Request: fold
Amino acid sequence: MTSPLGITVRSTPEAVAAVAGLGTIIGGPLLTNFDNLRRHAAVLLDQENWDGRVAAEFRTTVWPSYERALTELNTQLNLLRTRLGEIQQDIQNAG
Reply:
């Protein structure tokens, strides 16, 4: 379909399903897995559960960097999900 500006726009049923699928994965299983990673790490962060020189290094150096990466990835994926929805809506409105 051609928009009023003469630009061809297209959103096949497969594309609509892919946008929905990505959104579902980002907001569902992926988020759940991130939460599970944090839950398991919390056990290891407790000195009563896991201690020693290398365990202390995990608590102070290793896990915090991974926690930051997970948080940033989660933020970026949520932005992606939002942007995909906006793009899909723009395509539908143009058509």
Q: What stands out?
A: Residues 53-94 form the longest helix (42 residues).
